[in-house]
Amino acid sequence: MSTGKPKIMIIGIGNAGVSVLDQLVISHPGMEDLLLVNNDQESLSASVIVDRIMVPEGDPGDGFVAIDEEFGRAVAGAGAVLLCGGLGGVTGSFLLHALAVHSKSAGIATMACVGMPFAFEGRQKREEAVAALEKLHAVCDAVVAVDNDRLSGGNPSSAGVGEAFGLADRTILASLVALRGMLSTSGPVKITRADLHSVLGVPGALTHFGFGSSSGANRLYEAVEGALKSPLLLLQGKPVLREAQTVLLYLKGPSDVSFAEVQMAVAEIERIAPEGCHIKVGVNAEAPAGAPLELFITTSSGGKRSSERVVKEVKNPEPQNDEPARHSEATALPKTAPRSPSASELSPSTKQTKTASKPMNKQMQATLDLDAPQRGRFDKSERTIVNGEDLDIPTFIRKGIKLTSPVRK
After folding, report:
1. Domain 1-184: what homologous superfamily?
2. Which residue of 86, 125, 132, 389 has the fewest CB atoms within a 10 Å radius of its CB?
């Protein structure tokens, strides 16, 4: 059933993409607008995904030309395309880039969630994956690259091969769910495409990603704790959030997700991140009643930002007001004119300019539930008591001040 929103397509490419999308429909029943593209007939036939494009075997370039028109029809009318698969193999690396060029050339916001090879897969495959990732960054608006060696703690031999690849697939799956949710959220607290681009669109940057999920009275703290334990939020054994410039914090759950929970999640990130870190928050409270609270933390480090785009933003700063940020052509990423990709575009030599991090717009806050707050994971920590008051509890809760939404004019 159409909701009136632009469709967001998730496209699995190669055997890795097939595996991720099969797990996606099992963990998130009812997920729509899924497509497989692969040259392995056996893999496609075994998949539960209905919509698929079979790429002729042989030279990947010839295969792309053969499915060019069919792929164009499949993505026509999409508001965004999320590509997923593994880098390092000849077919997957080529098709991920070629289809990204095709999608972007059609004026569609294009993003990718990809896996990087384990060290035991060989140096040659790793080098090919790094080169393919660089090409994806040159085309895509945002890229989440899951480094399998970091995910496994650098020691994949301690687990079974199937288990190691399964963990990689689940992490790519979680990143797809997070990106799709951020793009589709229409409420007053959301992450814009420009926010995604500023964090995940930097060439050469490392992606850092964590996710957690929980239900019950202590769900917020348990979800945050699970996300923070992700090995992708560590770099050389140290928490990357300590040096983060911008963090994307996305919460997904049922309608009873409260602003108090959102505030507590932000406070936990602020406790770790340096002063001045921008925290971009998105909330999607449209899951069925009883669904778990899912929390996703994303940031990046390193890479090179375009000084040309930074200068442009200084000359044309984003308007600051009290209204929540809206998806619009003004906040959307620049799109190229619709046209078919040429051969030279399949190996672009220049990269799109990237946006710099921008301060988060002020958000409207609805009425909070001011019942007695739960200290959760802080119950066992030493309280900060001054004149008989626990200062670890927000002032408006201690004083019983009821916050309501201001009247819009």
Report:
1. Tubulin/FtsZ, GTPase domain (3.40.50.1440)
2. 389
